[in-house]
Amino acid sequence: MSYTSTTLADLQKEHEDALNAAQEEMMANLNAAQASGDFQKIQEVSVSFQNTATKLADDYTKRIEEINALNEKVEAEKVPDIYSDKRANIDLNHLVYDGDRDYVVEFQKNELIQDILERISATNGRFKSRKHLLKSSLRLTKTLAPMLHEIGEHCKQVLKLKAEIEFFVYQSDIFNASCYPPDDNRLYIILSSGLLERFSKEELTFVVGHEIGHVLFEHFDYPVRQILDVGENDLAPIHAMKLYAWHRNAEISADRVGLLCCQDFETAGRTFFKLSSGVTTDSLDFQLNAYIEQFVDLEEALNDANHDPSDWYSSHPFSPLRIKALELFNKSETYASFNDKVRGETSKEGMELEIKRIMSLMEPESLEENNECSEKIQRFMFLGGYLISNADGVVDDSEIQALSSIVLPNVFANCMMTIKGLTQDEMIEEVQQLSNDLDLVLSVMQKLNILRDLSIISYADGQIDDSEVHVLYNLARLLRINTDFIDRVISDAQGV
């Protein structure tokens, strides 16, 4: 037969139905052959079924490849334009960081996250930004803060804003700035008194532009903390990691708007320096190149075997990562398309790929599907996940669902068909052999990523059993990773 399904979910069901039909036909023929005592016929029926099953498996794998190729082609051909010009007359779809946009597209398609957003909207109503700000802070009129309003007018012209900007200040020595959900005709920028007093006009221009960037890219649409609070009984740790990863990527997009406004990369670097060091006097000699070089040291530290998984739940990128990402943008053809005084040295594609690599330092490392060890990695993850699920003697639906989320669909389907033929000891023996093979070729971060994904299985049913954690410890030891990492992953995930 030829499979005709166009989605992986439908294909899996079509394949299972075909196998069941073949098995039923085999059993009917076997019963008939046994009843007549025709032992040659029994052998022929068995061989025929094996051939049919092999053919079905081959057709199934081929159709999976066809569906994946079709999906990849559609995704490659269509980069969605998801940002409108309702707030500014600039091309936000060209300006946005790809990592920011891609997560938003994923969230838009995620029914669970969309359902939680609807619940948030239904219970909280519309937040009255201006009313709250007038009660809690001081509105800075043009008379009170003429320089700030000059900055606002400059940003409005550069970004071709369609709304007015209203500034507020509150008392705090901590350097902080934020924006509140806008109205149709007003944007609200809030600054701490410490920031307003100790940053130069140029530095404040970068800060104000950055905050406007959050508004332009509609980052208010996904309030991470509220989503996690309202969805605490529905969301898995992987959702939290993706939400925080998006939040970090959103900062990269906002930084680009900040640079568009201040139009000077060194100013942006000095702003990051002040925000991260707290030093605003001349007691330190600021050198932009030396500050950027800190990225090299941070990159080495983030690739250490004792990587802290709490990075995956951080809401902001580390400053050296941000300044490095902004340096790449500053030299790109993308920035040059917005600033005719700049000559772009790097293509948009090259810039985005390198920034993606930089941002991945704060995320679990991707295990590429075309990796030469991919088949072994996927098999190890499936068997390891199944051993975790079965540690308490019961493999429930939520654990199977979690297991299906960490391996590729075709691997999951094939493994589920073969798992019943293996004993517990045989699974353990295969996992040990796979770990020996993988230990030699995987990076530390790839091993951590595997263990992070496998940890999801341990709390998929809403509780963490000691026996499941014990299996996780053994898997970590096989990959030569300290078991403390397992404790931190589970602790951080539970905390989120």
TrEMBL record:
It is an enzyme of class 3 (hydrolase). GO terms for molecular function: metal ion binding; metalloendopeptidase activity. Transmembrane segments: none annotated. Residues 146-220, 243-327 form the Peptidase M48 domain. Keywords: Hydrolase, Metal-binding, Metalloprotease, Protease, Zinc. Pfam families: Peptidase_M48, TerB. Residues 387-484 form the Co-chaperone DjlA N-terminal domain. Its EC number is 3.4.24.-. Its cofactor is Zn(2+). GO terms for cellular component: membrane. InterPro entries: DjlA_N (IPR007791), Mito/Outer_Membr_Metalloprot (IPR051156), Peptidase_M48 (IPR001915), TerB-like (IPR029024). This is Metalloendopeptidase, family M48.
